[in-house]
Amino acid sequence: MAQPKLPTLAGQWVGLTIGHSMPAHLWQITQQGFTLAIATRWEHTSAVTMLRARLSAEGTAFSIGPFRAVVLGPQHFVVPGWDTNDARGGRGPHFDVIFARPGIAELAAPTRYRHYRAEQALP
Predict the structure, then answer these.
(1) Which residues on neighbouring strands pair with residue 51, listed in sequence order?
(2) How many CB atoms lie within 10 A of CB 55?
(3) 36-47 residue pLDDT tens
(4) Domain over 11-119 is classified CATH 2.40.128.20
(5) CA separation for the pair 40, 89 (Å, rounded)
(6) What pLDDT, in 10s, does the model give residues 75-108?
(7) What is the end-to-end Cα distance of the chain in Å, rounded?
(8) Contacts by residues 10-14 (CB-CB < 8 Å, ≥ 24 positions apart)
(9) Nearest alpha carbon to residue 101 among 7, 9, 22
(10) How far is CA 60 from the centre of its chain?
(11) What is the rounded distance in angstroms from the CA atom of residue 84 to the CA atom of residue 95?
């Protein structure tokens, strides 16, 4: 049986927090097989944090610590609950973040997120 083709996640990504006004999440992903190295920062800062992630065997998701990102295709992925309330003094809920390639995909991200929610039958 052939292995599924892994998605290519390497490159730049822009994350939009859903349901709360926050600066963009800017990610630069380097990929080696199933391993992802992510340089992440907020759009209004220059401080970079390095993260490691592991792509699932099917290539449909990846794990970053306790978070599970859902790959929606070559232009988008969602990290449910990624925008935690630590940036808001510990108050309020966690928010989903949809990531998109810069450009047209970035503009389409809110619509793609709504489709994702509808596909999952989530409110």
Answers:
(1) 38
(2) 20
(3) 999 999 999 999
(4) yes
(5) 21
(6) 999 999 998 766 666 666 789 999 999 999 999 9
(7) 37
(8) 11/101, 12/101, 12/102, 13/77, 13/99, 13/100, 13/101, 13/102, 14/99, 14/100, 14/101, 14/102, 14/106, 14/109
(9) 9
(10) 12
(11) 6
Length of the chain, please? 123
**What's the token pair of residue 70?**
């859902």
Q: What's the CA gap between 3 and 68, in Å, rounded?
A: 21
Phi-psi region of 36 (alpha: psi -120 to 50; beta: other; left: phi over 0): beta
Domain ranges of the chain: 11-119
Q: What is the pTM of this model?
A: 0.89
